[in-house]
Specification:
heterodimer, A: 200 residues, alpha/beta, B: 473 residues, five-stranded parallel beta sheet, 17% strand, globular, binds iron/sulfur cluster
Chain lengths: 200, 473
């Protein structure tokens, strides 16, 4: 997994509530058996017309945001299905951080497994960052995971919370599975005890 | 000391280790695998030279992507090369890693969340995961069941465990007798309408109260299925005699002495009387009408007697804008009575409402009537066994005589990954669980309803208060 330490980049404003995983990556692109290559279909039905032309006013099609690495969005981002294709598509496009007032549970989890940092902030902070983001490329934002701060274009700093274990995994690019396999003895012991419940 | 909730009991019984940061390493008893969210997980195992730790705790089948039309040509004959490759990849992965695979031509094949319970793979008190958000369905049996992403699928395959943060407890009491034609689907929609699509985020829901006890297992599955639409990781109903009666004798359920032992244990699985919940609400089912959604979020629910809401009445700007956007997408005008909204398509199916009871309820409405000329309607049973049972009961004949299509089991137009999808602008009365933009096909407009309401809309050509339709018939 890619590490996440510090990121300075353009933030794109996606001022929509309940951005769902069907919007992020529509199901016709879930037939792949690979992780990569989904970026070109990120937000497909919002980014492109049925004929495949770019929708000019969609934020990621605007010249200022084509290289965006951060998304600022409305409440309940990532609701809907468990498809990890959603973070894969975001990552493949180049998005490494999403800021919103709330996230759907499974999506939030999936981000951390893919080196993406989802940040939950109170409404007023999101509003502020949304306004800043609307200023386009003149308004880069710096996210520092170690110190858990976001530095806005005007020098103001916003602090954010993140689970300590997930922070460590992101900072070090740690593979969860490798970590859990080190706990093999505990899992073995648990399985031995299962004999008393043969239906399990 | 206060008592323990059902969720906490299952959590405690499965925690292999508590981590210093408060997360837990949870043992996973059952893992359902399907074709869409698993290929990259198996690939990951291969790349790191890892094995599947407990293949006998995994059950795999293809459901999302498979055709629901004639399948006599087998997998080879699937027209879409990507769908075919995904299904063949699952078959191959299962063979390589020693996992039981229910093939497309097996009578047990169906939607994972239908086949699991039907086979007795789902049991009370277990932890069950699947790379699919509607895994919450299995909570109907008092199992802690939730969806996971593909990285977690790989994690469970390799370690039979999952690192989880503990959710909070949220009890939803449903009291009163649901009136005739107010189904588990209506109760689910009413709850989501009440708490919102993020209302359950961070919680495990426990559904309790007389109206829940009165539900059949099918109804409880419909209800728990929609927990994820309320943002909750999982939904739970404490097991009871109905649960045991449903499971007894099923292929993968314990037998003989083991069965007795299991039931004795399952009887301990309910929240203690003095258990404390972080949040609790009560809903009166006796007040509920049949419901229908008008927008692009499952929380956009309204009584069938209601009208399309007016954004101008909404004070909050973000909500108003989102309502305007939804109405624009849905092609609806504020103030239009829902019963005047004409439909083009009807879909009866999905892991929410494709079980035998759902098909019986829809058939009872369709019987002797004809699908309106403007409407094309289809019924997609949840599994091969349900299809077979429905055919034994003659339900297929009722549907076909009324002008419905009768299909092979699968996810079908619930998510429109196969050929079953809406054309842009088409309006559908659907028994599925998500009305997101484009969910049933780009530009398609989905209204969520119960099976009876879907059948009623099919025969009248517009949304119809099922209670009146019955009175006239
Ligand atoms: S029927 Fe629909 S919701 Fe259920 S598993 Fe299939 S696609 Fe998902």
């Amino acid at each position: 997994m890619q590490k996440f330490n510090q990121l300075t980049g353009i933030a794109a404003p996606l001022d929509i509530l309940n951005v769902d995983t069907d919007m992020i990556i529509p199901k016709q692109f879930l037939k792949t058996i690979q992780r990569s290559g989904l970026g070109k279909n990120l937000f497909d039905e919002m980014r492109f017309t049925p004929e495949g032309e770019e929708v000019a006013d969609f934020v990621l099609n605007q010249p200022a945001y084509r290289e965006a690495e951060i998304l600022v969005a409305g409440d309940n981002f990532g609701c809907g299905s468990s498809r990890e294709h959603a973070p894969w598509a975001l990552l493949d496009f180049g998005i490494r951080c999403i800021i919103a007032t709330s996230f759907a549970d499974i999506f939030y989890n999936n981000c951390f497994k893919n080196g993406i940092l989802p940040i939950v902030l109170p409404q007023e902070d999101v509003d502020k960052l949304m306004e800043d983001a609307k200023r386009g490329a003149n308004a880069t934002v710096t996210i520092d995971l170690e110190s858990q701060t976001i530095k806005g274009p005007d020098g103001g700093t916003i602090a954010f919370e993140v689970d300590a274990f997930r922070k460590k995994c992101l900072l070090e690019g740690l593979d969860d599975i490798g970590l859990t396999l080190q706990r093999g003895d505990a899992i073995d012991a648990y399985e031995t005890d299962l004999a008393s419940q043969p239906w399990r | 000391m206060t008592g323990t909730t059902l969720y906490d009991k299952i959590w405690n019984a499965h925690q292999v280790e508590a981590q210093a940061d408060g997360n837990g390493l949870l043992y996973i008893d059952r893992h359902l695998v399907h074709e869409v969210t698993s290929p990259q997980a198996f690939e990951g195992l291969r790349m790191s030279g890892r094995n599947v730790r407990a293949p006998h705790k995994v059950l795999a089948l293809a459901d999302h992507n498979i055709p629901t039309t004639d399948r006599t040509g087998g997998v080879e004959a699937i027209a879409d090369p990507e769908s075919k490759l995904q299904i063949q990849t699952l078959e191959k992965n299962c063979a390589e890693f020693g996992i039981e695979y229910v093939a497309m031509d097996d009578i047990r094949q169906g939607i994972v969340h239908v086949t699991g319970p039907e086979q007795g793979f789902t049991l009370p008190g277990l932890t069950i995961v699947c790379g699919d958000s509607h895994t919450s369905t299995h909570g109907a049996f008092g199992a802690l069941a939730h969806g996971i992403g593909t990285s977690e699928v790989e994690h469970v395959l390799a370690t039979q465990t999952l690192i989880q943060s503990k959710a909070k407890n949220f009890r939803i009491n449903v009291v009163g007798d649901a009136p005739d034609h107010v189904t588990a689907k209506d109760i689910a929609l009413a709850i989501i309408g009440e708490i919102g699509t993020a209302g359950g985020t961070g919680y495990v829901l426990e559904y309790a109260g007389p109206a829940i006890e009165a539900l059949s297992m099918e109804g409880r599955m419909t209800l728990c299925n929609m927990s994820i639409e309320a943002g909750a990781r999982a939904g739970l109903v404490a097991p009871d005699e109905k649960t045991y009666a449903f499971l007894e004798g099923r292929a993968k359920a314990p037998k003989g002495e083991d069965w007795d032992k299991a039931v004795a244990y399952w009887r301990t699985l309910s929240s203690d009387a003095d258990a404390v919940f972080d949040k609790e609400i009560t809903i009166d089912a006796s007040d509920l009408p049949p419901l229908v959604t008008w927008g692009t979020s499952p929380q956009d629910v309204i009584s069938i007697e209601g009208a399309v809401p007016n954004p101008a009445d909404i004070a909050d700007e973000a909500r108003r804008k989102s309502t305007e956007r939804a109405l624009d997408y849905m092609g609806l005008t504020a103030g239009t009575p829902m019963q005047e909204v004409a439909i083009d398509r009807v879909f009866i199916g999905s892991c929410t409402n494709s079980r035998i009871e759902d098909l019986r309820a829809a058939a009872a409405i369709a019987k002797g009537k004809t699908v309106a000329s403007r409407v094309s309607a289809m019924v997609v049973p949840g599994s091969g066994l349900i299809k077979q049972q429905a055919e034994e009961e003659g339900l297929d004949k009722i549907f076909i005589a009324a002008g419905f299509e009768w299909r092979e089991p699968g996810c079908s137009m619930c998510l429109a990954m196969n050929a079953d999808k809406l054309a842009p602008g088409e309006r559908c009365a659907s028994t599925s669980n998500r009305n997101f933009e484009g969910r049933q096909g780009r530009g398609g407009r989905t209204h969520l309803v119960s099976p009876e309401m879907a059948a009623a809309a099919a025969v009248t050509g517009h949304f119809t208060d099922i209670r009146n339709l019955k009175a006239e018939g």
